[in-house]
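Q: What does the assembled structure look like for these inputs?
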Amino acid sequence: MWLAKMAWKNIWRNRNRTIITMAAIFFAVILSVIASSLQAGIFDNLVKNVVSFYTGYMQVHKQGYWDEQILDNSFESSAETEKKILQNKNVTSVTERLESFALASSEDITKGCLVVGINPEKENEVTLLRNKLTQGSYLQDNDNAVLLSQGLAKRLQLKVNDTIVLMGQGYHGATAAGKYRIKGLVKFGSPDLNDKALFMPLATAQDFYSAYGMVTSYVLSLSNTKDLQPTESSVRLAIGAGYEVMTWEQMIPDIKQHIETDSNNMKYVQGILYMLICFGIFGTLLMMMVERKFEMGMLVAIGMKKSTLVILMLFESLLTVIAGCLSGIIISIPLVHYLNKHPIKIGGETAKAYERFGFEAIFPTSTEASNFIHQGLIVLVIGLVLSLYPMYKIIRINPVTAMKR
Amino acid sequence: MNTVIDAHNISKVYNPETIPVYAVNNVHLHLERGEFTALVGPSGSGKTTLLNMIGGLDKPDGGNIFINGNDITKLSANELIDFRLKNIGFVFQSFNLIPVLTAKENVEFIMQLQKIKQSERDERIKQLFQQIGLEDKLNERPSKLSGGQQQRVAVARALASKPQFVLADEPTANLDTKSASNLLDIMAKLNKEENITFLFSTHDQRVIDRARRVITLVDGRIVKDTAVVSTEHKEAATIR
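A:
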């Protein structure tokens, strides 16, 4: 205990040096917390944007559907299965889809399209489809009408309240044919989806494809979108082997790969930041060692064991680094929350490019506690590893040479 | 009388491979308990080197040093630290108190290293501060004390561990006449009343005048070893 008291007194003997060291750690923590929160926030936002396009964070299909996406691989929608899925606390809602392809025709033009039968209200909760509406009005459950993506409408030269004719192959080879009023136009950021998507109420789609009571997927909404793997395992276990449960990472591997590549690049930036932190802390440690070399020699001369002196230095380092880390974390919390509520906005052409792809042109920060804890711990470890240098010097100290003026 | 320091043929050579310089050359030194001895000689004569070797801070290149019968030249660096803590008190030229600790804490520090109980520490501190006449300065930081007062606290710190002897390297070099005289009075009193052994290295005539034995070192060799006054202390060593 007396050693800890002595360490506390020692760190304040040269107030300026201690404040410089603490300030180096303080700013290092703030910078690294903001950098990592920004990185996590940007990736979260990217995922949110991509996932809310269409796939959702998780989907349930009949086993084998993802490899062969045909109507015959659909499954019967059952309240019991939905209930089993909803037993998982992380799943907040389940919405059904019936997806297949059809030929869409206007007066003179025909084009292939992706027909998606949806529950309009639940779908809106997952993919915010209503927000993508640019003309007309949103679907109701009992509508015998469709929402057409803008690109497809343009190709077919159709507008709201026109009629579209659909033809295709229904469930188990049945012929599918029907004509529907265009109730509204929706715009997607993804050019691919914008050129081929067509939405209709689930019952209408089941009727069109003669797939009564069938769906091709359940799209799941999650409360904690980071908790993918445990949720996936638990849902899979609950509904049995006849189904495949897929996360967005499995359905859109390109995005996951992009995030991983970007994260690796970011590691170099953070590496440079940590190096700057190292120099800042190490500089003050060197100053301290030069200043106190004589005193340390004297302490060993009068009988202080080097191990005790090492513990004293460890206390001093711990107190300084912890004080710098804690104050850095305390100040970075409101800063990160502010940047989350008021994200950095991108302007100009870049913003337009982002918006064209349906992404928000903002860089928000993530407020997850793990960012603060990780960065605080990293800087703490850096500080403690660097304090091994003074300890090494103490172990090697010779009182006679140390006490030479 | 019993022997506290018994050094045989001790030598310290610098640059043994190139141009050997003998800082201490074949010195024999014998100190009995209760001696008050000054080690004198010109700068570079080897006083501090000899003191460092006797204090276990430096290893001789030849010879043996027995402190209370223990050959300290055979001890490892860690064993020497422990040996110093328990057996030797040090007083340095430039006081060297720990600046962040009060006078009391500086003295207590040594006893904390020795893991002495709080009650025993308090008692010893009270006694030591009475002996050095600084009972009213217990809670002052070194920066609030004069040079003389700081050196008296350094003496108290050196005595805190109840050592076999005290080594003082130029203890009065940075003190004015009055402070030096006070310090010497205190050390002489402690020597007389508590039979504490003191070995000084010094240039200071004031110290030499108060010593009961003066050993003169020139070029690393003892050239003169004289018992100055006492009838109790006969000449303790011979010129070698």
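The longest strand of chain A covers residues 91-105.
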